[in-house]
């Protein structure tokens, strides 16, 4: 009669989580999410710096402004969209203003509100950088293969659940 330790001797792990294809532990899933985010962010940020002189944050800010009505967005809208503090968005917009990519202007009816408006140079830069960003992200995420819809749906559910818990 085989003893329980015989399975270990034959290379069968006790922990089902160690078996390829088994359900991973939450800590393993968390680690993979963080690694993927960090690695993709680093690769894309490096490519944008090298090819367009933009950080990933600056690119995302330009893209949000470009996609806003009238190519104009308030600092609050940018902070919310980028997940930055007001100070962080102000710093990012200051660099974009210094580079001639956006203009800072007061709001229409509420003169207290500041908006960032895309300049023609900003529109040209974001369009060029978007191709680099989108192609690189698409290439890296193509590694998901046929699992992309499943992963996207699962991450959307996790994101929605996390959003409601502050």
Automatic annotation (TrEMBL):
SMART domains: HTH_MARR (SM00347). SUPFAM superfamilies: Winged helix' DNA-binding domain (SSF46785). Transmembrane segments: none annotated. It comes from the Bacteria. Residues 26-160 form the HTH marR-type domain. It holds the Pfam family MarR_2. Coiled coil: none annotated. Residues 1-24 are annotated as: Disordered. This is MarR family transcriptional regulator. It comes from Blastococcus brunescens.
């Amino acid at each position: 009669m085989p003893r329980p330790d015989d399975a270990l001797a034959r290379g069968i792990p006790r922990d089902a989580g160690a078996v390829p294809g088994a359900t991973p532990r939450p800590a393993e899933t968390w680690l993979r999410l963080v690694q993927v985010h960090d690695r993709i962010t680093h690769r894309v940020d490096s490519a944008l710096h090298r090819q367009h002189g933009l950080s990933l944050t600056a690119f995302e800010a330009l893209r949000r402004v470009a996609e806003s009505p009238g190519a104009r967005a308030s600092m609050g809208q940018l902070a919310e969209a980028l997940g930055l503090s007001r100070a962080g968005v102000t710093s990012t917009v200051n660099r974009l203003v210094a580079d001639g990519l956006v203009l800072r202007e007061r709001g229409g009816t509420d003169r207290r509100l500041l908006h960032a408006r895309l300049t023609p140079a900003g529109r040209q830069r974001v369009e060029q950088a978007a191709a680099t960003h989108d192609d690189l992200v698409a290439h890296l995420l193509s590694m998901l293969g046929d699992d992309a819809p499943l992963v996207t749906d699962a991450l959307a559910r996790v994101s929605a659940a996390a959003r409601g818990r502050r």
